[in-house]
Amino acid sequence: MQNDPKVLIALDFNDAETALSFVSELDASQCRLKVGKELFTSFGPQFVQRLIDQGFDVFLDLKFHDIPNTVAKAVAAAADLGVWMVNVHAGGGSRMMKAAAEALKPYGDKAPLLIAVTMLTSMEEGELAEMGVTRSAEEHVLSLARLAQASGLDGVVCSAREASLLKSELGKEFKLVTPGIRPAGSDKGDQKRVMTPAEAVAAGSDYLVIGRPITQADSPLQALVAINATL
Ligand SMILES: O=C(O)c1cc(=O)[nH]c(=O)n1[C@@H]1O[C@H](COP(=O)(O)O)[C@@H](O)[C@H]1O
Fold it and tell me: Where does substrate bind (predicted)?
């Protein structure tokens, strides 16, 4: 039993029944749940509400990236829904991130954690150059994370490979949420910048986003318990 479960399971399912039957095996003391674009586009806020009603903390992962006014309204809608964490893209810039942080102020301690995606864990350093970014992945992530912190956000999504650098540069209170987690021997799939759960926590990750290594396991519950035991 944990008071602050570190594992955020990515519920990347294409039908609600499968997702709900998967969730019925889980306990809110063992994990939190992440609802992303696939599930949300099909089943929407009612689905998120059901998970919250079952006692789970929900990370609404819609990676908002739009003009400041639109993103501010979207994060306020997420707060109204009662989610625990919501994210935006740091690439939307400081005015967008500040507007999002400002929109959550009226919610006080009921506001969701607001975090910014830096560089997707599916991307390799070489792909930055295609977008005109000539600095290293570490420099790029650190610079976007600094911008997020200066804009009043609670933390960032990054790869665990950048976690120790970010913790030492930005302080231990600034939350690091790390996808691209792969237990030893599991398939990387489309992820590139990966680490094992234990390595990620040792490097400074506060929360681990894990999808397929749990959802596609023969026994998802056993996979979750095994991962929690390594942390
Ligand atoms: O914001 C995210 O959660 C996210 C950011 C990122 O850089 N990389 C990333 O994989 N994710 C999400 O984390 C989950 C990872 O799933 P698996 O690769 O199946 O473990 C997916 O739902 C992604 O949408």
Answer: 12, 34, 61-70, 121, 182, 191, 211-212
Phi, psi of 38, rounded to the nearest 5 degrees: -65, -55
Strand locations in the chain (E): 7-10, 32-35, 58-64, 85-89, 113-117, 155-157, 175-178, 207-210
With a threshold of 0.95, does the pTM exceed it?
yes
Q: How far apart are CA 199 and CA 161, in angstroms?
A: 9
Ligand 1 shell residues, CB under 6 Å: 10, 12, 36, 61, 63, 87, 117, 120-122, 157, 179-180, 189, 191, 209-213
> Cα separation of 52 and 231, whole Å?
25
Could you report the predicted ipTM of this complex, rounded to two decimals? 0.98
Q: Position of tokens 């691209």?
A: 180
Catalytically annotated residues:
61, 63, 66
Beta strand pairing call for 155-157 and 32-35: unpaired
Q: Measured in angstroms, how far is the CA atom of residue 115 from the centroid of ligand 1?
A: 14
- 30-77 residue pLDDT tens: 999 999 999 999 999 999 999 999 999 999 999 999 999 999 999 999
Phi, psi of 201 (to 5 degrees): -65, -40
Q: Rounded to the nearest 10 degrees, how much is the dihedral formed by the CA atoms of 75, 80, 81, 85?
A: 50
What domains appear along the chain, each with residue ranges and CATH number?
Answer: 7-230 (3.20.20.70)
Distance 63 CA to ligand 1 centre (A): 11
